[in-house]
User: Fold these one by one.
Assistant:
Number 1:
Amino acid sequence: MSETMGDSEIKQLEKIGKTAVADLKKEENPKITIPLRGLSNVYFEKKEKVIRLGDKTSQRTLLNVAHTKKFMQTTMIAALCKRLLKAQKHASLREAYYQLKHSVGDGHENTFEGQEESDPLIEDMETLLHVLREKLHLSADRRGYLYGNIQLEDRGDIIDCSKLGSGGFGIPSTIEEIKFKKVTANYVLVIETAAMFERLIEEKFAQKNKAILVATQGQAARGCRRLINRLANEAKLPIYVFTDGDPYGYYIYSVIKQGSINLAYLSDQFGTPACRFLGMQMSDIKKYKLEKVTEKLKDLDRKRLEEELKYQWFQTPEWQKELNMMLTMGVRIEQQALAHKSLEFVAEEYLPEKIEKEDVLP
Amino acid sequence: MSETMGDSEIKQLEKIGKTAVADLKKEENPKITIPLRGLSNVYFEKKEKVIRLGDKTSQRTLLNVAHTKKFMQTTMIAALCKRLLKAQKHASLREAYYQLKHSVGDGHENTFEGQEESDPLIEDMETLLHVLREKLHLSADRRGYLYGNIQLEDRGDIIDCSKLGSGGFGIPSTIEEIKFKKVTANYVLVIETAAMFERLIEEKFAQKNKAILVATQGQAARGCRRLINRLANEAKLPIYVFTDGDPYGYYIYSVIKQGSINLAYLSDQFGTPACRFLGMQMSDIKKYKLEKVTEKLKDLDRKRLEEELKYQWFQTPEWQKELNMMLTMGVRIEQQALAHKSLEFVAEEYLPEKIEKEDVLP
């Protein structure tokens, strides 16, 4: 437990309360100014290639009947975060809701009616302080696994992630306190499916290629995205993303790369603009003779593709070509379809070849 | 890699082919007799308290046009399993499908049109040989985490599961080859949500109580259920199951305890009849003054409850009382609602008290 960890967050949280009290003493109406989230205040910054929040804000004042309850709830959440930081404890969003529900005086009215009231205010807090909720000790749901050439230090334990059998390390909801103790990897391979992750562990891919494997199990959870971000920025590792060759796989990639509209206010900490898309690529189908193991696009796939063609972050010649090729060919291809060649093929030929030739999309 | 591992399975698989060849040589119609699965051939064995398969069977013959393709597919799957066992490789169900699709000669017809054709035949193989598909080296999807007082040996690695930071061990899809190297736990606590699992890691619950924590993340995956089964049968540990107090939590418990209708043919290896239900119990609400953090039952909850009241495995006085109490009170309660008392409450009071007093349901 470091002495400084959380100190700056505590000061920021206290400032919310102190400012309100000072306003009241001056007989002024206490207010909190919160950046607006959502599409109307989001833009894609082309230079840094991340989704960012604009400068629109909204104000929440105490002496406005429409705001009073929310004002109180906001300060309650700030107070809870301060308590968590002081006690060096973490709480899930659900626990936070249960901690805060019905805890003011003897009143019969609930302070919070449901988690749908507390969650957005926690996002407000992140936006307001420009701090990850994980750094305020509030955790999201966890999903995903890590395996390979890295030693982690976590809560006093030293974990050699290349010696975790066939299981790997479960990526926790909050990875802020994990330290990269020793990195012997040349790159990180982010994998969509847990089955492919298991395939590559069985093939000893991490050991043979000095790699770190990260399984997202579908859309990457916050802890997983934050870990990828830190592996790129702190450990300075190249990041390759390996998903199914379908519109959903592209979407998973785009969220890892430039963040999401929902979390635009924290793209610096969640997005990894330097990551690259390894596959599955449409050109793989011909190159590796996989014509017989493609699947026909469904209507939903086509609809998503049409949308992705318009996204700002897919406005590169490479991605326009890729997306149009999928539309024209009318098929998608899964990463596990490579098993049609042989089980080893993905580990012994496909991936090493792609990486050596830098056969990737931006 | 042991010399004997998989040998008996290989012999069983070879027998399928040898029998068919012998039949052909005798100019007889080769046939495979497979136990029927599904509700019509399933019963609840009260003594051992598991769901079992009856003795109805169906026959698949080569020289019946309606059976020929399926007969071929069945032998193809047997051949694939043999290859996997010989090579000491594992394949996911999806990989198995891709390995087998379109692989006979130069014909234009697919051998398998989709995974919906290969999956049921793999279940046939499990039923026929009375062997887990994991022992035939075919893996299901993984989900779940392990943490606590146990050392595992897996693929040559020794893993101390009490020294895995805040993450824990990712439970792989196949746990057949994992050895329990050293067990210093008094019991296993199976937990429905990953958030509660993280709470208990943070509270050092495993260390303080000499426990093993298993997070199922909702319905327990096959690997997770098999691990619980082995912890009960091989490591001889008591198993406590800790879910939300709602019909879905009860369902998760019942599947861990007596297996499922789908997998009735393998209840011995997937069910854990000795496990007990720790909570959340309806009586907890009054006992721990949790009235303000319950949630109203929804229509779907009531419907499920009515169904569960009729299930044979809930025909005990304790469960009938519990289910009826929920119907009468009209509420459900989540495990994370205990955070309303304090974050530590679950680890320092609720769980130790329940376990000490054996305040559990059968």
Number 2:
Amino acid sequence: MTRKRALGVAVVGAGYWGPNLIRNFASSGDWALRAVCDLDLDRARAAVAGRGEVAVVTDLEEVLSRTDVDAVAIATPARTHRAIAERALAAGKHVLVEKPLADTPAAGAAMVRLAAERGLVLMADHTYCYTPAVLKIRELVASGALGKVLFVDSVRINLGLVQPDVDVFWDLAPHDLSILDFVLPGGLRPEGVAAQGADPIGAGKDCVGYLSLPLGDGVMAHVHVNWLSPTKIRQMVIGGSERTLVWDDLNPQQRLSVYDRGVDLTQQAVDSIDRAGATVSYRLGDTWAPALPEREALASMVAEFAGSIRERRAPLTDGEAGLRVLGVLRACDRSRAAGGTLVSVAAPDPAPLEEVGA
Amino acid sequence: MTRKRALGVAVVGAGYWGPNLIRNFASSGDWALRAVCDLDLDRARAAVAGRGEVAVVTDLEEVLSRTDVDAVAIATPARTHRAIAERALAAGKHVLVEKPLADTPAAGAAMVRLAAERGLVLMADHTYCYTPAVLKIRELVASGALGKVLFVDSVRINLGLVQPDVDVFWDLAPHDLSILDFVLPGGLRPEGVAAQGADPIGAGKDCVGYLSLPLGDGVMAHVHVNWLSPTKIRQMVIGGSERTLVWDDLNPQQRLSVYDRGVDLTQQAVDSIDRAGATVSYRLGDTWAPALPEREALASMVAEFAGSIRERRAPLTDGEAGLRVLGVLRACDRSRAAGGTLVSVAAPDPAPLEEVGA
Amino acid sequence: MTRKRALGVAVVGAGYWGPNLIRNFASSGDWALRAVCDLDLDRARAAVAGRGEVAVVTDLEEVLSRTDVDAVAIATPARTHRAIAERALAAGKHVLVEKPLADTPAAGAAMVRLAAERGLVLMADHTYCYTPAVLKIRELVASGALGKVLFVDSVRINLGLVQPDVDVFWDLAPHDLSILDFVLPGGLRPEGVAAQGADPIGAGKDCVGYLSLPLGDGVMAHVHVNWLSPTKIRQMVIGGSERTLVWDDLNPQQRLSVYDRGVDLTQQAVDSIDRAGATVSYRLGDTWAPALPEREALASMVAEFAGSIRERRAPLTDGEAGLRVLGVLRACDRSRAAGGTLVSVAAPDPAPLEEVGA
Amino acid sequence: MTRKRALGVAVVGAGYWGPNLIRNFASSGDWALRAVCDLDLDRARAAVAGRGEVAVVTDLEEVLSRTDVDAVAIATPARTHRAIAERALAAGKHVLVEKPLADTPAAGAAMVRLAAERGLVLMADHTYCYTPAVLKIRELVASGALGKVLFVDSVRINLGLVQPDVDVFWDLAPHDLSILDFVLPGGLRPEGVAAQGADPIGAGKDCVGYLSLPLGDGVMAHVHVNWLSPTKIRQMVIGGSERTLVWDDLNPQQRLSVYDRGVDLTQQAVDSIDRAGATVSYRLGDTWAPALPEREALASMVAEFAGSIRERRAPLTDGEAGLRVLGVLRACDRSRAAGGTLVSVAAPDPAPLEEVGA
């Protein structure tokens, strides 16, 4: 067996997230890190950390003109994703984009279209999807171990770096939405979105948010995102007809618990002639906590990026996935503007909007 | 000090909840249990359990005509509450009513009106409010220990006896709503109600429910009730400007945790001239878990019923409280009927409706 | 199939534990409770609670002379067990004895001998052994699911009713020792006992205790009992060559966890020629929490008592089991008297001693 | 205020622990890392990681002859500590030594003596003592918040790198013993040591160990160390007359819990004339979990090393502390050799022994 040639990659943006990408590309056997591009050269040099073989540049064109660069990873602010991605795709480079894919669904759709036309990989860096826990959840759902998914409830109460230009929906919900898109068979395609937000501290934007996402056939997904509690909760419950899964990301001793319990619909013997007379019963069984390998999510993510390029296939979190997440976020804005009523995701989003989630 | 005379009480209804009331009235020093009334004499006798001094009857009038009965406790189905309560109040008896207060806000309002006219106590048996944990939460909020309440998030994922005639909102949410009414200063008076329900198993009624209750000034309460998971979660988070409280009712070792942490709004130095430029920061402090006395909630509840009669004052959970809970439940029905949009609680509820939460 | 005739039973002693036995015998289909015997008639009457068919007597002979009494359950102080048991066995009654079996191994041995001679059942009420968790542990060990047991570590930090006449070893360790006897194949037969006790509050007896029980072949059981912490811990770890089991009795959501992990001895490649050069490695696998039925331990215990009588076999916790526990407790006294050195359990215990664990 | 001159330091040994020391010295404002010394130059260079200003050498004398080196940190195998430390002290360098201080108490005592003669700092790198949790425990005990310490129970069940030349006592117990020495007022000075070990897998050395350490006046410390369970437990309970502290190092959400509960000795009214008639009662109060700062233990440790040198005082974990830990470990060997009986720590240790903990 011959050793595969490493693919060449350049990272654009050396701010908050870029250094993580740089570190993982540099230590991956699949990749050769060729260049880092940032307007702030000092920041870029610090991120490269004495790796002499990596070029540090300020000019994107310098990166795109290199023939030893097969792919570009974009870790710049969301509003710049489209322009950079389009230039990279036009130059024949595969593209990885930091979440969210773009600042608007229209921008994201344009990126997806161009990548498809050029036959290049466009991948969304939905990092959480590559954690061992989420990979295992996806596997469990896909294998049918949970039966039919009945409801998903996700809570993300988080303290953290609050960015001035986004609200809690656009800051935190992309994590939950990208995970839902990843684990639900067929991806996240809700019938509608109903959102309620609150700003009890006068921050000028929602700090507490609730999203209801009916998935069809009575199935409901719900997301609670919250900046205002210094007590972290990161929990997802997936109720299935056969088993129920609880993911408690802050319990390193037992992140995933699968309850071999289900809910059965029982027809009542009484004089009920319609389904309203039915009741539910519970089966109680064992609990099972699968062992999870210890692997950094970003390492798995860059490996998947390489794999999709080599195998000429869509990556697990492709541009379409990023676009679905964007669509829900934009629908969430519209629902809030309409008093929280259920709005369609598919509604037209006529022109690129200037501001996001403000 | 002279020993207070025990008040006489009769319990109407010896089904699911009645025996608990019977046991607590019988063992209370404040009360003398005089009679139990049920159409099913055997069931009533079993509930009385050989207490020879307690009359067992089928006729409500026989109870109401007794001069040694000061008060009547009603533990019959919700649709019968109004009729029984009105007859008891008309006979000059104080009244305790099992939750929910009535099957419609109109019925409840009539009961409240009559009690006020007669100068009698009308109390709602919101049992959960009298648990040591909720009494302590009320005390903490009232004392200002949490600062201004910013958000409340309540989750009740429960397996249990599913009654055929109610949905998950009417079955489980009364607990959360009565607790919110009890601990929020001024009671539960939301600006509106937005509700989303789901029935993924074809039960003919909602089995998963979400309620958003904006409380004014940007404050949000939210309730998640769920029948479909055999994994219990009963958790309430109350975020305050000074401290955050987490109540985990399934952790007997530490039910209440008070985090001495708060969220501060920080004006940014940058060129922002409006509040949108503000950001939040976190103070991290100690955690404190108050010791809770071990006392049965129903014992505290019957003591409060006696106290309110003796002191001629409203009980902590009076008819108005029961009515506020009913109003939210009814608004929740209307919001669901309107696709989950925010509806007003105060909207007219013209005539007694026949069915509840169906 | 004919319904089995209920066995007749009398309970002797209506103090702390007697009422629990009375309640369980009375509600068991296997048993007909015939009489309760106590010197304090009022206490006995209260324990019987209006069951008119149960005789209440002060004279043991009156109980033993009844032909409708097949068995006697003894719930009196330990120092009286031998005399009562011997009279009951002499009268041809099967005997159940509250833990500990007797106040000395000699007394216990005499009881065991007499029961054997008469062909009657002598059972120790090791209640904890009949909890769903311990029954499951016994089953797991017996089935080989854990592999070879390598070590057992039991911690019982408990607040509770401190009896004036026993120390922490005699008060709490019988629980752990009877469980060890129950779950270890072949029962608890240690090579020796080494005990360390401490009395840091000047109580005049040990309030903190540690027992080491080498079980042969390098296997070690260890018990930590403690009165002095108001924080309860009740945890047992059983390390096996195939799997490790953790029983956390204060975690009702997940009392038993079975870790599918084991320890392997690896021979090192280096120049080591003996086993001392070996090292251990770990296999990491899933965790599994078996569902436990909800059943009161005493209900299972009285059923086992009936079963052993009907099937003319030794009960799961027979007199020999009680005797093995007594032997370890007495050896524990001797080890403490000898500075904590390892002493043999089999050492002679010449004459009934007056005081216990003082 | 003038900025203090950084002290010069050299690290000897770049194996398992050395790189951690190198990283912390390099990033400390108190220190200037001058040199790293290791026989394996490649390993040393990798540990230095491109810090061009740091010399990498194989010859200890080259380090000791540098005038810009004030102190030497030794991270080599235990059996080499004495020789290296003595040469460094003779050269006038302050010395930090990896745990354990030496392979025998005699070797450790010689090091302590020489440092005292030369007026130089000799510090033991008891890293765990500098974790935020242990620093807080020390503070709580010293402040009297717990009252009089009544018992300490430490459990360390750990999977990890098993070194071929030590048993579980010498591998894991130094952590617990150094923490006990750090938090107990006056240090760890037990009246004796009783140890029980077990080797159920035929590893040729103890893999499970129990240490009882009576501290005088009825107070007991106990340590359980265990290699054989792949389930980690790291818990210490400190029972005090006023409060009880539980440290659960694997619960990052609440590592320290202080229970405001105590145990009181109550004289009984009955005819007891001696203390044996006394009983204990419990006060139940709140629980309190102090916030802990996030700081790497090694950063605090190297700061303490610098502080002790500058202020010409003993460091918090001085050579004497290391020596006390060594003394207990050696006594533990003697107790095991004597069947687990209580042996004195002070017993003579005539000559440097060749092997350790074998």
